[in-house]
Specification:
mainly beta; single chain
């Protein structure tokens, strides 16, 4: 082996009476690619229960990296093609693209700050999320979150969480 890629792969195909589902993943360190599709045009009941009624295909490219000192970054790109069903059973195909990038770093008081930016091409919406987690003890932490879109702050939330109940 000239190059050790540390490659991981997975592919699963499921055939139902009137539908099929396919899922494939391939990854190397710091990068992965996923594809999933459902062909359920005839409304197979088992496939509908497991994956939904409408046909879809989803492609996702993910990357992440952790630095020394506890910082990390990630990026996700998704392309979704979904058939939307109305009450009469008519379908309309819709393509959507999503992008998300994020950064996480340790900060004062053994706390952690996470910042991510999400963009949806279908709605042309951008949101920024800020999350600050501060440990109060070995089992209790407080989490302060702020969510903002292109226009203003949508949500400010403080939570106290206890682990190991």
């Amino acid at each position: 082996n000239l190059i050790d890629w540390d490659l991981s792969t997975e592919a699963v195909y499921s055939q139902f009476e009137d539908a099929s589902h396919f899922n494939a993943n391939i990854g190397i360190p710091y990068l992965s690619l996923s594809y999933e599709s459902l062909d359920n045009e005839l409304g197979d009941p088992v496939a509908s229960y497991m994956y939904g009624y409408a046909d879809y295909s989803r492609l996702s490219l993910n990357s992440s990296y952790s630095f020394r000192g506890g910082q990390s970054v990630y990026a996700v790109y998704s392309l979704n093609n979904d058939k939307q069903l109305d009450n009469l059973g008519n379908s309309d195909e819709q393509a959507q693209q999503f992008i998300s990038v994020g950064y996480s770093t340790p900060t004062v008081l053994d706390s952690r700050v996470n910042i991510n930016v999400d963009y949806s091409e279908a709605t042309d919406d951008t949101s920024i999320n800020l999350l600050w987690s501060v440990p109060l003890s070995d089992t209790v932490e407080t989490i302060v979150g702020l969510t903002s879109d292109s226009d203003d702050i949508n949500q400010f939330k403080t939570t106290v969480r206890r682990n190991q109940l």
